[in-house]
Structure formats: structure tokens, C-alpha cells
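Incident review: delayed structure delivery

Summary: a single-chain prediction request sat in the queue longer than the usual turnaround. Root cause was a stuck worker, restarted by the on-call engineer. No data loss occurred. The affected request and its eventual output are reproduced below so the record is complete for anyone auditing the incident later.

Affected input:
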Amino acid sequence: MNNEEFNIRVNVIQKTFNDMRKIKCITPENIRKVDENIYPGGDIFTTEDGDFIDLEFQIDDFDEEELVKYVELAETLYEKHQKHVAIYIICPNTINVSVTECPILSEADFTIKLACIDEDPCEIILRMIKNKIKNEETLDSNDIHALELLPLKCRPEKRNYFRKEYFKIMNELA
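Output delivered after worker restart:
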């Protein structure tokens, strides 16, 4: 992740979730890896105090199963490092959110916040991938996987647009 992408994500965290803590860095893979069977998270950042912030883009409906995945990730990160974990989830206002806000009892110290926005997360993800290409960064397997999923996760009327963008990028990489 280059500085521009890092700053964009920090800006999203600060503005969308009103979290003004200083973010030191993207959390290294060896620290953020918790368990093979646990969802690895989106972009996990480390604050100046050593706490963790996980920024997620949710493009599927948000139900109890999705919430359980995030709770499990937060608890496991906390158990491993004994640092507060904040999970911030951005989703389009077009998905179905079928869980209500309620207390989550746990020995772990974490918060989970969900923000529904007008901008389509698929557009945000595509813009981040195009930014990587523009900055001559190598796309990793997560980028390719996200790109492949965009036509399936977007609104039906935008499928062909995302397919076309997927094909363009894959042809450029070939």
C-alpha cells in the first residue's frame, strides 16, 4: 500500500467513524495473522498506542453470521496482543443489514461499527486497485480476488461495467 492509499484509508477512518487516533502504520502480516480458520480482515492498521483498527468493505448483506466473523476476529486479535481492536465496516446503503445494535459480552476489548454510505464500496475497491496499477504497484492475490468478485457483489445494473473493468485490468496485467 502506497502513501496515497494509506492516507485515503486513514481519512475514511477519521471522517466516517470519527476516530482521530494517530495511525502509525499498516499492521505487518506476521502480527495481523491470527489463525488460518479465522477471517483475516481487511486493512488492519496499528495506532500510535499499539491498538488495532480493521477497515472493512462489506458488499454482502450484513447478518448474524457476518457479525460473528468480525467478533471472532476481534477477540482473537485481542487475545493474541492484549490491545484494543476497532473494526470499522463500510457498506453501501443498498445492502440488507439484519442485525441490530446490541451489547456483545466478551473478555476482549473491542468495538465494531458499521457505516452505510451512498458511495458503492465496489467503486471504492476498483478505484484503490486502479490506483495501485497507476502507481506501478504489484496487485496481490487479495486484489485479484476482490476484482474478480466485483461483478458478483455490485448492483445488478452495474455488472457489465465491473466485468469490463475486470477484463481491461486483467488484459493489462497479462
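Verification: The radius of gyration is 16 Å.
Action items: add queue-age alerting; document worker restart procedure.
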